[in-house]
Write a sequence for this structure.
DNA sequence: TCAAAACGATGAAGTTTCCTTATCGATCCG
DNA sequence: CGGATCGATAAGGAAACTTCATCGTTTTGA
């Protein structure tokens, strides 16, 4: 197999050409690239001589791409884009052990942090940097390796692995339910203030599927962050329709209790996402595998024997 | 949107680096690239300074890729490959109107050529160049735009459109069946010599599905090319299990007749394939669309009311 | 309508990058 | 131990790239 790539056009000319084609003007391209108009003109000319055909048709004092030019623009863009991406990735190798994980503040605080102890034991050489945000940053450009997001798993171009579904169920602090023990709450939760997740608005669904009418299902405190929602519930301010995944350690240590044995599977789930190439780095791969393993462990122990509420079935 | 691609490493260094990484030796890379060993060393060094980290670990007097180097090798390869591919494609714009179509001699002679008249009328500005071969040339490297191949449609990375299925049925020259008219042949074709397609060996299937035993089902002339097979049948030397697609014009002009109203759908079908990017060229797109349209027309008129033999069903 | 402004082309000169030559030190092999 | 092979490096020269200065054309606006 001959791996000689043949004659190739000069790389810098690609940049000039790309800018010129995009801006439709040699002068503006020169400005953007901090070069002179003459340089762009020369670059384009060198490409045109290289290909033996014009890439721009000079109409009046402006320029317009030819068919061939339009084709090559695509090539130039992808080539530069690919090279730039690969180049950016190289920085990661300068910080051995460090892996940047982006996720929501809620997931970071309620699921990741409680597993730090375990992580330190399992993969001591890995130093995760948690980048907590509710914006699903474009991991192409941001310097982050792994994202953990709630969603539908449709992130094109990214490697995506489903960690677990998101089951929700009413939760509250144990002290709030005097008399009635866990799992013995009245179906309409009468007397309990409701705490709301601003984004999800799930209480209506919950009552509808329970066959219960509650007029003030919208009243109560609102939170934009599911973590704060749980904290508020722990503080005893009411019942939250909380995620079993996020509330896991609160249920373990008893700071929250479930009001019903049933739960509701939401449409979204938690996913780990990653630019495939990043998994080439050993540390990324190690943390990635560890996360997936932990998720598996969690799912098995926390989702076993779940009773779906209403028509929602399945448990995977 | 900032379309500045940031600092990029020099392109020529990528070639040197790629060769060095592939061959595991600066000296051999230099030889391959027609440069001095010193040049390769400089190129690699410039990349290493660019990235601020080594790409090779110098062990003894040989070199070995680091993790970062392995990652960047991937980037370099893909970048060069992509650029080389796009560069190669540019030549096509220098031959306006010409489109190279690669297909088997049989398909070219029996299906394409009979439609030349029509083609000249429909798309007079297109000059197809037929490259007839039984090797499915890698259209990435060969200078060809469109391929028409018999197969399963699994050509990864290529745009693939199914033209039509491949139905076969016994055919022979009309003079050969004295007395018995068309479609009235004895089920075992007794007395008729059999002509074989070397690759397909379909007669056994045919007789099995017909519920007929014929001992000498393997005897007779063999052809490596389905076109020659049909020519031999036209010449009256026996019955061929011929493709309805290839035999179409022979059936139209009466030089071949069908011996049964039934036909057998083979596992493979005829596909048009193309590197997606090539369709950017207007002339390629025009010929591509024309081919697909002609295939559709053919399929409708020739495959209407086909009676499948045996358990084979469907007609799509 | 005409002058000024804006744009791209081009030749020459200057600058940077790149490659080679020559040579060195280290390593592998017999 | 000695020759052969490999990669590193300094210095010089070649090639490529960019700028400078200038020209011709087209568009704009007074």
């Amino acid at each position: 197999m001959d791996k000689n790539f043949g004659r190739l056009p000069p790389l810098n000319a690609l940049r000039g050409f790309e800018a010129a084609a995009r801006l439709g003007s040699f002068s503006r391209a020169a400005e953007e690239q901090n070069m002179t108009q003459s340089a762009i003109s020369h670059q384009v000319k060198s490409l045109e001589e290289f290909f033996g055909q014009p890439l721009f048709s000079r109409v009046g004092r402006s320029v317009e791409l030819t068919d061939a030019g339009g084709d090559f623009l695509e090539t130039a863009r992808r080539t530069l884009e690919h090279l730039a991406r690969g180049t950016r990735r190289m920085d990661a190798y300068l910080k051995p052990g460090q892996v940047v994980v982006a996720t929501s503040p809620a997931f970071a605080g309620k699921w990741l942090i409680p597993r730090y102890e375990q992580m330190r034991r399992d993969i001591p050489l890995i130093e995760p940097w948690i980048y907590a945000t509710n914006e699903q940053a474009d991991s192409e450009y941001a310097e982050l390796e792994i994202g953990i997001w709630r969603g539908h798993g449709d992130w094109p171009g990214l490697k995506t692995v489903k960690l677990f579904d998101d089951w929700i169920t009413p939760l509250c602090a144990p002290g709030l339910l005097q008399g009635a023990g866990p799992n013995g709450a009245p179906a309409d939760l009468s007397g309990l203030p409701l705490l709301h997740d601003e984004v999800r608005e799930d209480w209506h669904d919950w009552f509808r599927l329970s066959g219960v009418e509650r007029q003030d299902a919208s009243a109560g405190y609102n939170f934009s962050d599911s973590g704060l929602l749980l904290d508020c519930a722990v503080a005893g301010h009411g019942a939250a329709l909380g995620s079993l995944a996020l509330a896991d350690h609160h249920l373990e240590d008893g700071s929250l209790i479930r009001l019903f044995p049933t739960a509701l599977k939401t449409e979204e789930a938690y996913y780990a996402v990653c630019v495939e190439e990043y998994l080439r780095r050993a540390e990324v791969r190690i943390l990635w595998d560890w996360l997936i393993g932990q998720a598996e462990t969690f799912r098995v122990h926390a989702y076993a024997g779940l009773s779906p509420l209403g028509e929602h079935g399945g448990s995977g």
Q: What stands out?
A: Chain A touches chain B through 47 residues (CB under 8 Å). Residues 10, 12-13, 35-36, 38-39, 42-43, 46, 60-62 of chain A lie near DNA strand D (CB under 10 Å from a C1').
